[in-house]
Write the structure tokens for this entry.
Amino acid sequence: MSTPTQKEDGVDQRRITVSVNGESRSAEVEPRLLLAHLLRQGLGLTGTHIGCDTTNCGACTVLYDGEPIKSCTMLAVQADGHEVTTVEGLGTPSELDPVQEGFKEEHGLQCGFCTPGMMLAAKALITRNDEPSEEDVRWALSGNLCRCTGYQNIVKAVLWAADKERANGGGSAEGPSTAEHTDLTV
Amino acid sequence: MDEVKIGGLGASRKRAEDNRFIRGRGTYVDDVVMPGMLHMEILRSPLAHARIKSIDTSAAWAIPGVRLVLTGEMAAQRNLAWMPTLSYDTQAVLATDKVRFQGQEVACVIADDPYIARDGVEAIVVDYEPLTPIVNPKQAMAPDAPIIRDDKAGQTDNRSYRWDVGDKAGTDTVFAEADMVSKVSMHYPRSHPSPLEPCGSIADYDLGTGKLTLYCTSQAPHIVRSAVALIAELPEHLIRVISPDLGGGFGNKVPVYPGYVCSILGSILTGKPVKWVEDRSSNLISTGFGRDMYLDGEIAMRRDGKMLGVRMHVTTDQGAFFADAQPSKFKVGLLHSAFACYDVPVGHITADGAYTNKSPGGVAYRCSFRVTEAMYFQERMVQAAADDLGMDQAEFRRVNLLPDDAFPARTPFGFLVDSGQYGKCLKVGLDAIGYQDFLVEQAEARKRGRLLGIGISTMTEPLGAGNSREYDILGIKMFDSAELRVHPSGKAILRTGARSQGQGHETTWAQIVAHELGLPADDVVVEEGDTDTAPYGMGTYASRSTPVAGAAVSMVSRKIRAKARKLAAHLLEVSEEDVEWELGRFYVRGAQDRGVSIQECAAAAYSNMPDGMEPGLEGNAYYDPPNLTWPFACYIAMVEVDPETGVWDVLRFVAVDDCGVRINPMIVEGQIMGGLTEAYAMASMQFQTYDAEGNMVGSNFMDYLLPSTWETPGFELHEVVTPCPHHPIGAKGVGECATVGGPAAFVNAVIDAVGHTGVRNIDMPVLPDRVWEALRTGHDYSGAPPVKGD
């Protein structure tokens, strides 16, 4: 559990530790800080985007213990002790995740703003269901809005990635699992 | 050399941009962090129309971490409370006397972090004296309406402009003598482009150098630089505007917004960088919307179906400030491109603009300067006319579309259309969807109570503003530009005055260079958006990039080729006249094996140039287009309406687009599918309206609906290729065609399905309750917002 502390100006602070892309990260945060802001401003992982203020768009989607969640609708303190995967944790420095490859191959992105959230929602689907139908893909991504593509190529991209994963025998390269500790105050 | 293999013209080249975006390594405005940066939040008016009696900011100042609270009064001290708009009106930056729309900017709080800034906004107390709001332009134009813009000297009513075009006398004569006149009235509702990334800026005014660096979400960073110089009275060489990666624009990011100006003022006053990133609700309630236009339209016809003339009266709802981003000579954009694809001898259009208590805008959301309205009204009028004649809607179009030998063709409103094959385009669409078979199926289904409908939209639109005789913004002619530098190793950097927001310029411009010079596209890096480095250009909107900046890329490449030819002659030790070009290589006429590559010429430009030749291999081109480009399309929707609920489903959608030569077919198709999705959204679910108190309905994603994967239908794409005769590579613009032409296809299909009840029009969005009501009553459904006192 997070431990309450106080900043000198009296604002309540909690110390939290979150595993982000396989790295253990610790931070002092206000309880009201949204997870999306911890990732973006606190940890500099700016691939996670914010496209709305009512939890509709899914641009902030990350994996939370493997499940897709909208990080604009979770407090950073709620992630204490959990595992978070962001777009920066997809693939490895030398190898793209099949989902990333699929989006490029099938022209599943234009401005790129929805892309990180969209790919993580797709990743969660493929992990759960290695042979999704077009309908499965459309349903799994229905919490992620895109303004550019009209979705048709995104669906193709996810099916491409599922095919590639199956051809690989399932299970793509995991992100680095080093146990570095980083202290910061947000 | 195989042009497609090196990523030249016609290659469906994978995008250069994707490599960073799929890794989360794009750099959007909110990703930029500067040392000492502060954060700004804006306090917005909760009321649509009210006098400001007082603003108490003391509690906000008292919050630890708050560095500055800006009010209109403070802005006025710097002559920044008001700013000019791109339509030669003025717009309040921070309200001083009154608020004139809900969501208007009233004050700003600048603090150490955005959470504190928002606490500060909550702590400001404003005392308002409410005034009667007006949200319907017809009410605004009534003689006794209170004057919204009482800040403007000499403004005695709520009219923002009056404009007309065409031959009034000739049109009136035709209408007096026609066999039949078909009339229809419609409202194109207010919608919002809502790019997934909202607007934002970071202003960094360096007190040491006097230089302002402004990161901002701009589709036209050079225009922003010139506008900021004008508004903030800063010298243009000491303003650097950087428009980094943009998370979509869709016309929302052309204007200069009060938030940008406030961040600049905030940085000047604090001496620190100030970041402002609006939230979604702020984006929807205060930034540039699209449409909001009323039409009374008429077509005069012969009984055999030949159109003789058109007459249109439109009223635009401008909101509280006339701030459309459009060429200065055209008050209602290029609305007069209506009926450009048809053989109509004469026409007349009148247009009135009205101020209302609503947010400013009008030109946005893939509208090509009001062409969305022009083509929607045109295609709805055409369907109504066909129905009035009792004629098949496809046949009515076929007999009235301009024939292939008509080009270049003069339209009834004075445009010159460059090229077209409209009959072929329509036929490809009808064949693809199986039109005749569908009509049989539809008739049989109706006997069993099933409501099937088919809707067609055929259109052409003017893209690529535009030639210097007619087109300017703030007096600056609407050219565009490219600068190309070839390095000694034959790799190159290209910069243009356009600004991509996802359209793939970094990929496609390199393809034009590959086509012109034979340099592999992968060897050309493309940059846009930094006014210190990119050549001056007018930016990206109205699908003008390929017609104008794309042409400039061609022209600068040809300049480089001309110099490379001299270098080749030197290297080959022959005279220039004896040098022949094939893609990527010069050779000696009559001795094809004696040649040098473009890369060898590049090396020679730095290491072995002939005596008297300036070293280096680079140049620039500013392109003043001779005409607009006129892509065209045929869109056909097939729908089924549920008579019990009014819900309609898209059974099939066929799109046939002709944008001339396709630089990158993959990217063209992506543009079309995105545009069709916007068209479907507008037709089926999307609008912003206002209640009688001036409250916006549609100011967040809970009720301003964007289709997801689940609602969006599949699209079947086809093409016809009719090159643009005046463009260096025969390419036309295309980015907006589907949004311009698509909505009428959907609405025409629903009207076709329910027309047996006598319904002639249901205003967009064609919501199930509207369809149900129309089916029940047989009456048209108007989507106009309420008149106060109704």
